[in-house]
Amino acid sequence: MPPERWGCRSRNEEKTRKGKHSTTKRDGPRTMISLTTIREAAEVLRGSVIRTPLVYSPTFSHLTGAEVYLKLENLQETGSFKLRGASYKIQNLRGKIGPEGVVAASAGNHAQGVALAAKRAGLKATIVMPESASLSKQEATRNYGGEVLLVGQNIGECIQKAKLLAEEGRVLVHPFDDPDIIAGQGTIALEIFQDCATPDLIFVPIGGGGLISGIASGIKALHPQARVIGVQAAACPSAHQALREGRVCRVEAERSVADGIAVKQIGDLPFTIIQEKVDEVVLVDEDQIAAAILLLIERKKVLSEGAGAVPLAALLGRSVEIPKGSRVILVISGGNLDSPLLERIIRQGLFRNGRIMRFSVCLEDTPGALASFLAITARLKANVLHLTHQRSGKNLPVYLSRVEIELETRGPAHVEEILQELQREGHELH
Q1: One fold for both 5-78+183-348 and 82-172?
Q2: Which band of pLDDT confidence, cut at 50, 70 and 90, is reported for residue 95?
Q3: What predicted TM-score, i.e. pTM, was given to this entire model?
Q4: In Å, how far are 33, 183, 187 from 215, measured between CA atoms?
Q5: What does the alpha-carbon distance between residue 416 and residue 429 come to, in Å, rounded to a whole number?
Q6: CATH code of the domain occupying 82-172
Q7: Helix, strand, or coil (residue 1)
Q8: How far apart are CA 231 and CA 283, in angstroms?
Q9: Residue 336's closest CA among 2, 99, 89, 109?
């Protein structure tokens, strides 16, 4: 079953009816981000951020029948798109920021973006991070010049602390619910359009909504025919649920490998823009995200964090119908993936794909028995990754030894070939 999706009606249809998805239920003035503002942001950011490449993928194009391109924001300095919005916000306010500097709440990417942007502007940066934030992201933030305060167990508690610090004289740099932040992220749309003037579909991760709001604002102004598809982890569907209910709401979140977009409540301004300019929002599950991370590494040599891999997960999961020959852009939003998590993702992915098999077998405890057994696996071209040889254990006869072995294989067909051959040789596998 394909992941759940939410599709927007056309603007004309939206104006003719009211319902739970209707934008007419929103009170107050609309604040949209103009193409002029995004272009101004691009001028301010010139030389401060990397113009990241748009790279064609033959593999993903072949798998989908489309022309698939990757917008590699994981190559941005600090490892994610967040540097764009943070830099533009701080540059815009530079003359209004006092000696206390700026403050931000983040578990990772926004923290690093604000820290580096403030350092370049000669300003102090205080970053409030949850106590559970990874050590590598804490150290990266410090290395970029930020003063890290560990507060509470979640981003909500961090934001409350950041707001208190803002009352003491610091300027709060919000991660997504801010027009300057959104305009800065929208500069990605200008770069996409310069490299691919007529994209058909653009898949963008959604956390708090700042990235997709900026990209959608720019793309719809430059090429209204393009469809902008938002992608969220099913473990934290805050934007998806908000669109279903027609209002910003808070959702309960489960743990997700896409922790960078595990935002329980999207911003008010991003929600308004998403309602107006995003064509569809879809959900992907954890296995799809992990598989996409592994595919990006193996097929494109691209290291993406979970949040950055959700566009590929949605594309390969057929979350959206892709007409043959369509030009498809996947925004790989960041690459800040902790090494221990990366190791687990790779190993689990290899197991699920049949690329690793693990079993135990009992052998006669005599000279040459183990060598004969391994000769069979060598003949079958299976690579031994790990082996444990035990001569004692519960229910193990004294004349036998137990071998636990892990093999690297070519895939499910190779696994089946190995199993059948070992069984033909008289081995009982567990």
Answers
A1: yes
A2: confident
A3: 0.85
A4: 10, 9, 7
A5: 12
A6: 3.40.50.1100
A7: coil
A8: 6
A9: 109
CA-CA distance, 213 to 270, in Å (whole number)? 6
Distances (CA, A) of 330 to 120, 207, 430: 30, 16, 42
Provide the token pair at 264.
């329980």
pLDDT for residue 69 is more than 80: yes
End-to-end CA distance of the chain: 32
Catalytic residues: 82, 333
Q: Are 182 and 217 in contact (CB under 8 A)?
A: yes
Nearest to 256 by CA among 288, 224, 225: 288
In CATH, what number does 5-78+183-348 get?
A: 3.40.50.1100
Catalogue the E-assigned strands of 122-278: 125-129, 147-150, 171-172, 201-205, 227-233
Name the band, by pLDDT with cuts 50, 70 and 90, for residue 30: low
- At 251-269, the pLDDT tens digits run 998 989 998 898 899 999 9
Boundaries of every domain in the chain: 5-78+183-348, 82-172, 354-424
- Read off the amino acid at residue 298: E
* Amino acid at the residue 330: L
CATH 3.30.70.260 fits 354-424, yes or no: yes
| CA gyration radius, the chain | 25
Q: Beta partners for 99?
A: none
**Longest alpha-carbon distance in the chain:** 83
Q: How far apart are CA 105 and CA 173, in angstroms?
A: 8
- Nearest by Cα to 93 from 73, 110, 118: 118
Question: What phi, psi does 71 have (nearest 5°)?
Answer: -90, 105
pLDDT band at 31 (very low <50, low <70, confident <90, very high): low
Closest CA to 86 of 154, 156, 190, 171: 171
Number of C-beta neighbours around residue 32 at 10 A: 16
CB 80 within 8 A of CB 176: no
Residue 4 scores a pLDDT above 80:
no
Q: Do the Cβ atoms of 13 and 22 come closer than 8 Å?
A: no
